[in-house]
Amino acid sequence: MRVVHSDVRDLKAIITTLTKLVDEALMVFKQEGVELVTVDRAHIALIKLNIPSSAFQEYDVSEEFKFGFNAATLAKILKAAARKESVVIESTSPDVVTIKLVGAVEKSFGVKNLEVVPPEVPELNLEFDVTATVSSAGVNKAVSEARTVSDSVTISADEGSVKFYTEGESKVEVVLDKDTGGLVDIAVKKPATATYDVAYINDVMGLTRLGDTVSIAFSENKPLQMEFGSETTGKVTYLLAPKVA
Amino acid sequence: MRKIPAELCVKCKGYKLLCGLPSCPIMSRFRSLVNVARVLSSKDVITGSTPPSGIVGERGYPNVRVIIGVPPEVTGAQAKEFEDPKGWWGRKSLNEIIELRSSLVSAVIESVKVNDPWKLYEKEISLAVASKDPVQTEVISKSDIVPKLRFDGVLVPRGPSLKAEEVKVDENPKLSKKMESLIFDDVKAEDSVIELYQAGEDVYSIVPSLSMGLLGRRKNRKLVPTRWAITAVDSIIGKHLLRKIQFFPEVNDITVYHSAYLGNRFFVVLFPSKYRGVWVEIWHPMSLWADEVTVVDLYENFWGEYDTLDGGYMAARLSVLEYLYNNVRQAGFVIVREVTKEYFAPVGNWHIRETVRRAMRNPIFKAGSLEEALKEVQSRLLVKVNLFEIPSVKKLVAQKEITGYFTKSDRTDRAV
Do A121 and B407 touch (CB under 8 A)? Predict the structure, then answer.
């Protein structure tokens, strides 16, 4: 197995995010691309990664290869990449995976391939009343404002806008609509309002660098789904359980 | 005079001075009420066995006071009774504990540099405090005994005090083998605490050894004010157990546990969930810190992050963690402490640790849902409090788990 990606920064953002949710995870290299599914240790959120083989500069996977890793260790290695550098992930034996960061100088790290049991996650058939595409900058702003005053954020949406707000003594409200450019697209089956742990949303805000927009979907008292990146370059899906009063 | 909210006093317990006053008015009033009537006659030399009893103060840090408790003329195993939280539990009333403590003379060694624990070590004073059994001790003093009792929310009450010119240890302190080897070894304090705990040493002997600067890397050893050491030991052991518990399977049932002692009633609810917890303290009107029903609470998440550090919570939490660890389970939990007016004097937080330990051996109710369990606890409280309105409980009940949505339809939520 040998794959090469021209920009290590996206992978760095993904692995850094994983460190906030899990200790270990399993990356599965399949012929069609790389997959990873994991549930955070508190069982509040699920994170799913799909990078198609076409997003890689080189993709040589003849048979399925499982790479179990410690997220903190891998994040530390990837931190060695200061700027845009290529990353090579290769393995000649099942026990060790070599990570190479290729820039002005080449840095090579051998990582032990850990035995990681992936969580059993059935196909999720969640239907959402609201599906919207919002700007990455907008959602970032809304989350950072909300977490300064509260540990929960309520999201509500109607045909024209998506609103992030907090309840309690200190109130913050951030509205994303088409006029201000915060809202790109929205489809509403019926208006919905739901509350989530803002720290858990903040944990994945590093993924907003994967694209200019984030797709969000939710219903009343149901999980929030956030999608970062795209089908072609690679996508991270984040599902967060709601807070139900 | 402006009114200080009772909630602030309950959180502060006379120690953090959250009201901004230079000393706690409730404590001052209380002290004046219970000062020892019996005045001990002053002598130049007081002899007796320290149970052992030793406190490192925090005022003046890094130059602190070290206080050794000695019951005059009481020697041998009898002296143990004067400081024996585990043995006291369920046997001694609040009055009896105060009585015992008021006959324990506090020999105060003034201005000890925290960075130099070796002075006390050379005189075997620190070893005596960490001893398993009482140690024959002599206190030489020229000052008069101050017949005052000192009370504290975290520490055991302290008896009448006198300035010690010299404290002589006249007997060999008895230490466990593990303790002896850690005193000689160069091991980090945190690791030493865990090693001692794993070797079966209880919190009440680990605290004095940490406090007296007997543990840690040799060049970094310091005296640690006892109040800090108690919470540090609770949290070091708690953290160690939590790291293991987080990988254990969840409990199957929703169970309510209960125990009570010294006017403090404890209810613990365990329910199937990943580790997370809530601490609720309900203070009755006319109890020490509150003149009206006062409720304080805090929430701890799966990662072991809590809103505020509370010594009482750390003690209660340790007992719940020990229970979970011994049963190889993890759980969500709610601990409710109801403090009645019978608890008129604070005698330290040892009774919280011990009562919750007892509670975990006494299941009183199995519930079908967390809501039912909390309603049961609520019905057993002696004052009317709506547990469901408490912010941390709300937070606990509100957060769903994502695994609850791992079903064919998206309509199945978990009960909790």
Answer: no
Domain endpoint, select from B112, B147, B169: B169
Of B303, B395, B403, Cβ closest to residue A43: B403
Q: Which residues contact B143 (CB under 8 A, 6 or more apart)?
A: B42, B162, B163
Q: How far is CA B402 from each of CA A20, A242, B202, B398, B406, rounded to the nearest angstrom?
A: 16, 8, 39, 13, 7
Assembly ipTM:
0.90
For the domain with range A130-225, which CATH number is right: 3.40.50.1860, 3.70.10.10, 2.40.160.40, 3.40.50.1010? 3.70.10.10
Instruction: Give the total number of structural domains in chain B.
Output: 3
Cα gap B320→B331, rounded to integer Å:
10
* Listed residues B212, B245, B278: the one ending a domain: B245
User: B204 is in which domain, residue-wise?
Assistant: 177-245
Q: Do B402 and A122 touch (CB under 8 A)?
A: no
* Chain B nearest CA to A240, separation (Å): 7
Check whether B38 has a pLDDT greater than 60: no
Cβ pair B274:A124 closer than 8 A: no
Fold matches, A2-112 and A130-225: yes
* Annotated domain spans of chain A: 2-112, 130-225
E strand or H helix at A185, and its extent? strand A183-188
Per-residue pLDDT reduced to its tens digit, A111-167: 999 999 888 887 777 899 999 999 999 999 999 999 999 989 999 999 889 999 998
Residues B81 and B187 in one domain: no
Q: The CATH number of A2-112 is which of 3.30.230.10, 3.30.70.890, 3.70.10.10, 2.40.50.180?
A: 3.70.10.10
Do B351 and B300 have their domain in common? yes
HSE (CB half, 13 Å, CA atoms) of A9? 12
Which residues of A are less than 8 Å from B404 in CB distance? 241
B62 and B128 belong to one structural domain: yes
With beta carbons less than 8 A apart as the criterion, state whether A35 and A53 touch.
no
Q: Is B411 part of any domain?
A: no
pLDDT at B28: 64
Q: Could you tell me if residue B192 is inside a domain?
A: yes
Q: In 3-state terms, what secondary structure has residue A150?
A: coil
Question: What is the reported pLDDT for A39?
Answer: 92
Is residue B310 scored above 80 in pLDDT?
yes
Give the end-to-end CA distance of chain B in Å, rounded to a whole number. Answer: 46
* Mean pLDDT confidence for A10-22: 92
* Of the candidates A13, A16, A9, the residue with the CA atom closest to the CA atom of residue A72: A16
At B40-60, the pLDDT tens digits run 555 688 899 999 999 999 889
Whether B225 shows a pLDDT value over 70: the answer reads yes
The pLDDT tens digits for A177-220 are 998 889 999 999 999 999 999 999 999 999 999 999 999 999 99
Model confidence at B14, pLDDT cuts 50, 70, 90, reads confident
